[in-house]
């Protein structure tokens, strides 16, 4: 008679099978449309931006640059500049991180199962460069019911253009923030 497998073995095999079949970010699959060397990213990004986007880190709650940001415009991937979220979809979730209920385009973000820290979450990453952005949850407002919980450090912001009817110059630029921005 065969001995029963140790109790952890079936769970481990199930987790490995799930990980092997997981879609993964383009960086995990090594097929990103936009690729930067780690050396270039370390030079261009702040240490926090690098940690969040390249090492799947998380910034401290309520301390991110865009947590309480209210300006109108577009939030983009800090690594490659891909437009991700419109300010109209941003809402205060009281989670401590910028939250959005929808993406600019379904093709802008990749969803991946994340089993880190002993729980199941869905990671969101930039579909163009694979940068880690945060996680998505099913507790957002209507119309989607989704909450894209996003690290400020993974974002840059492009303010909405103001219409200056009758003025000849449209060359206003935002003040530098000390962050890498594309």
Euclidean distance between termini CA atoms: 64 Å
Largest sheet: 6 strands, antiparallel
- The SSE order reads HHHHEEEEEEEEE
Given helix and strand content, the structural type is alpha+beta
* Average pLDDT taken over every residue: 84
Structure summary, number of beta strands: 9
What portion of residues belong to β-strands?
Answer: 15-25%
Which spans have pLDDT < 50 for at least 5 consecutive residues? 8-22, 166-177
| Share of helix, binned | 10-25%
Radius of gyration: 19 Å
Total helices: the number is 4
Give descriptors for this structure.
4 helices, alpha+beta, 182 residues, globular, 3-stranded antiparallel beta sheet
Verbal overview:
The protein has 182 residues and is an alpha+beta fold. It is 19% helix and 22% strand. It has helices at residues 8-21, 26-29, 38-44, 47-55; strands at residues 73-77, 83-86, 90-91, 99-100, 109-114, 121-126, 132-137, 147-150, 155-159. A 6-stranded antiparallel β-sheet has the order 3-4-8-7-6-5. It is globular, with a radius of gyration of 19 Å. The model is unreliable at 8-22 and 166-177 (pLDDT under 50).
């Amino acid at each position: 008679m065969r001995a029963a497998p140790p109790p952890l073995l079936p769970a481990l095999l199930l987790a490995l099978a799930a990980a092997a079949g997981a879609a993964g970010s383009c960086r995990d699959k090594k097929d990103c449309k936009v690729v930067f060397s780690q050396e270039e990213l370390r030079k261009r990004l702040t240490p926090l931006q690098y940690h969040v986007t390249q090492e799947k880190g998380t910034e401290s709650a309520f301390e991110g640059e865009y947590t309480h940001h209210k300006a109108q415009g577009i939030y983009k991937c800090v690594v490659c500049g891909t437009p991700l979220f419109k300010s109209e979809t941003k809402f205060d979730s009281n989670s401590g991180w910028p939250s959005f209920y929808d993406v600019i385009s379904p093709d802008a973000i990749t969803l991946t199962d994340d089993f880190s820290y002993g729980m199941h979450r869905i990671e969101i990453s930039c579909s163009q460069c694979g940068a880690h952005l945060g996680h998505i949850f099913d507790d957002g407002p209507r119309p989607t019911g989704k909450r894209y919980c996003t690290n400020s450090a993974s974002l840059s912001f492009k303010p909405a253009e103001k219409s200056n009817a009758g003025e000849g110059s449209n060359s206003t630029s935002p003040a530098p923030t000390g962050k890498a921005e594309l």
